[in-house]
Amino acid sequence: MKKILFALVVVSLFSCAGEAQMSDINSSDMRGKIVYEDANVVFRQLDEHTWIGNGNLAYNESLYIVEGNERALLIDAGTHIPKLDSIVASITSKPVTLMVTHLHADHAGPAVNLFPEIYINAADLVLVPNDMRDNYKGEIKFLTDGEVIDLGGRQIEVIFTPGHSPGSTSFFDKANRYGFSGDAFGSTNLLVFTNLSTVMYTAQRIERYMKQNEIRFLFPGHYSGNNLETLQRVIDIKDICRELLDGERQPVSSSGNNGGMDKMVDDKGVRIYFSSLTGFK
User: Fold this and answer.
1) What are the tens digits of pLDDT across the range 231-254?
2) How far, in Å, CA of 160 to CA of 206, rounded?
3) Domain span holding position 258
4) Is residue 220 within a helix (H) or strand (E), and if so which, with residue range?
5) Which helix (H) or strand (E) holds 130?
6) Vertex 60, ends 39 and 70: CA angle to 5°?
7) Residue 259 is part of a domain; what is its CATH number?
8) What is the pLDDT of residues 178-218, one digit of tens each?
9) What is the Cα–Cα distance from 281 to 262, expressed in whole angstroms?
10) Which of 257, 240, 258, 260 minimizes the C-alpha distance to 249?
11) How far is CA 207 from CA 67, 81, 176, in A?
């Protein structure tokens, strides 16, 4: 009975979110009850077969367990989470496959070595020497844009979303009308390591995809409880990038160390950082 009531509460939350505006969606923390906690990570239950882990080293870096009837996905591995394989096994009894949204160190830290294989977008291979902190000992396999992963009664579609990194990738659960976007749309702070044109066309593609499939929101790579990525957020990012490229909007100088990104825009609830040398492409 408790499980049924919990499921009904979550379904109600998601249904309400689907009808709400962005501010209403982001006023509801959907992370749910804690199912595991130690000094390095906290896992909470998003719904009956989905969990989120938040690490504590890089602004709530997020990793997700997505379970079907036959197997499960672990999306991202955090910055530094010892015994992550054992932690995940304590949450789901299904065989687990590790896939990553991109290969930056806060999403593909040393815990990747606890898994015998990792699935990545090949476009991020340029990041392997610097950002997979240890030499990965397992087998690197490659995702395909548009492929559908059948977990048994639950299907996850892979969509490439480059911009933050060359190989940024998002994962969509169309039946439940949500997805997992990593840092593709920034978790309110979008760092553009490629260029604004790439981000603009990615946002344009995902805008169309979300509308066609009635996707309500995306769980980001740094989910803090009030920063879900909505359709409106994707549209705003697309429009800001277009305005920058067309000269209709001027960026300001960026202070602080953002990986060489010396320009930024702060508008509509999102900051976009990029390089004046490589961003205007």
Assistant:
1) 999 999 999 999 999 999 999 999
2) 10
3) 2-10+29-274
4) strand 217-220
5) helix 128-131
6) 85
7) 3.60.15.10
8) 999 999 999 999 999 999 999 999 999 999 999 999 999 99
9) 15
10) 240
11) 26, 33, 17
Q: Which one, of 213, 118, 206, 133, lies nearest residue 170 by Cα?
A: 206
Take residue 189 and report the two structure tokens written for it: 């702070």
Name the residue among 263, 244, 246, 242 with its Cα closest to residue 254: 263
Please indicate, yes or no, if residue 19 is contained in any of the structural domains.
Answer: no
Q: With respect to residue 21, please indicate whether it lies within any of the assigned structural domains.
A: no
Kindly report the number of other CB atoms within 10 A of residue 139's CB atom: 10
Number of domains in the chain: 1
Q: Does any domain span residue 106?
A: yes
One-letter amino acid of 133:
R
Q: Is 15 contained in some domain?
A: no
- Whether the pLDDT of residue 15 is over 60: the answer is no
Return phi, psi of residue 47, to 5°: -150, -170
Residue with tokens 């687990």: 96
